[in-house]
Amino acid sequence: MLMTADTQGGVWTVALELAGALSRAGVATVLAIMGGPLSPAARAAAAAIPGLELVESAYRLEWMDDPWDDVAAAGDWLLDLEERVRPDLVHLNGYCHAALPFRAPRVVVAHSCVLSWWRAVHRRPAPVRYERYRARVAEGLRAADAVVAPSAAMLSALAGEYGALGLGRGHVIPHARDRRRFAPAPKEPFVFAAGRLWDEAKNLAALERVAPHLAWPVLVAGSDVAAGGVGRRAGESLCSLGWVDEPELTWWMSRAAIYASPARYAPFGMATLEAALSGCALVVGDLPSLREIWRDAAVYVPADDPRALHAALDHLIRDVARREALGALARRRAVRFSPRAMARRYLDVYALALAARPPAPRRVCPPSSPSPCGTPCE
Description:
CATH architecture of the largest domain: 3-Layer(aba) Sandwich
CATH class of the largest domain: Alpha Beta
Strand content: 15-25%
Low-confidence stretches: 368-378
Distance between the termini: 20 Å
Oligomer: single chain
Radius of gyration: 22 Å
Strand order of the largest sheet: 3-2-1-4-5-6-7
């Protein structure tokens, strides 16, 4: 299988978890990387997966500012990769490239999108400067043999922004994390949060407002520099840890008594899953996607209500029994989102895509004719 991924956040994490689970099921993956260089730790994690081949590039991603020359060049690169790899299926963790003339069926995974992000954060449709993005994403969605989202809420958002996907083409497969990477330790008196400080969807500014009025400190791990180099630093009321690698992140989560994510937009929320696996009591944004995922295993607060956020955190700080019960409930819920279960559901979707559109036949040249593409024909 040929799979695309990027280095800008949770997509890489999900891609690696899925590739590892697919490898254990006997599926080899070629992972085509875009968006920037991999860290040594990320490259080492990929190298540990049997049968996984990494192919790296630095092409800009479709949601970045003015990316279209890079998107076109990345498209040529992906078609060349498919010609070399000859995969049974192309798994795209992005939208636009699904419209390319791949021979193999293509499955698109909708981790998030600019238009639904904008609507959730700014409470209005995205401005006209995103019309080209809208058109290209819609084109990719129409061309896909199957579309996967990590929540039904995200699948519904896609239909609202780009039009109905059509009967039987949309599928919900939650993201997953290996629970062996995360384990509760004796809990300590602090509130923890993780996320990009510059991303308004994370709404970490709400924690800045309530932190001075809490009995516990609020620690935040995450980059303060966006992909374009623009940043936003944490206020003095938060204890900013900056960007931390996975081992350090898991260390902090294992000890945090409460994890707070008052998000305005979260199609799934990988960090929240990691915190739940670490046994944290969850206080999260009151979003359809998060209620769908966590049900009764979290406390929900409106993103624009700092008083509700303060009350929820203050209550859990004071109520040890409720806090511990909620942390245990979150972990029991989180272990359901396993890489094995995720891979099994993806294999079902792959089978449907393959059955709906078998791969195009390879070109076979007459024995006496030269190969028109310059490579030996079968």
